[in-house]
What does this fold into?
Amino acid sequence: MFSRILSDIQCILDRDPAARSKWEVLTCYPGLHAVVLHRPAHWFWTHGLHWLGRFTSHIARFLTGIEIHPGARIGERVFFDHAMGTVVGETAVIGDGCTIYQGVTLGGTSLYKGAKRHPTLGKDVVVSAGAKVLGGFEVGDGAKIGSNAVVIKPVPAGATAVGIPARIIASKEGVSADVTTQDRKFSAYGITQDDDPVSEALRGLVDSASSQDHQIAMLWQAVEQLSARLAGSDCVPQDAARSESFEAAKINALIGK
It folds into this structure.
């Protein structure tokens, strides 16, 4: 038991630069207290002492602000960072090395008792502040859930989910979220250098429109030159777009490029 608590303390020291000592973590980190108190609550629950399990989890909620159902399963080295207002449902499973921030909900969408209603997080998953993961699906190892995302479908290993409803950014070799790398680094709050897929799509449309504007201007210039040679006069309409007017740089700046 003590070795597991020491492991929990060390994982907090590794992931939180504000943690200065083991004593500080042991006495001042509600995320650690929530995990430690969940273990007897879960033992009570799995041994048929349901009321005692719920009462223990209720005390833990009162002391830490983190609500973990005693039926939930939590792996080793799980860090609830700040985590005020976090809710973990009955059939949720949190894998080893996961990090969960404040305001997160691991909730269910089914009303059937006994069914797998809540999500399963793989190893080293980061769930950022305010995110809602709703349903009995799996979030793969090394995945990241962006702040305030609403995830209602499975997330592949190493991928990042952002937006409402969440859109999936696939993992890439060589970045911290990719589970294929040997030296995967921890990413606080699930921050990724990859772009939102909607922004990527918008940028593609902007680039396409800019290219078409350029081609149209070149065509009108060619038509003007050809008509001048054949007829000796300018018969091209005065409102013809002879120069580019599409401001792609400004539009890209608005969408964050």
Remarks:
- Residues 197-231 form the longest helix (35 residues).
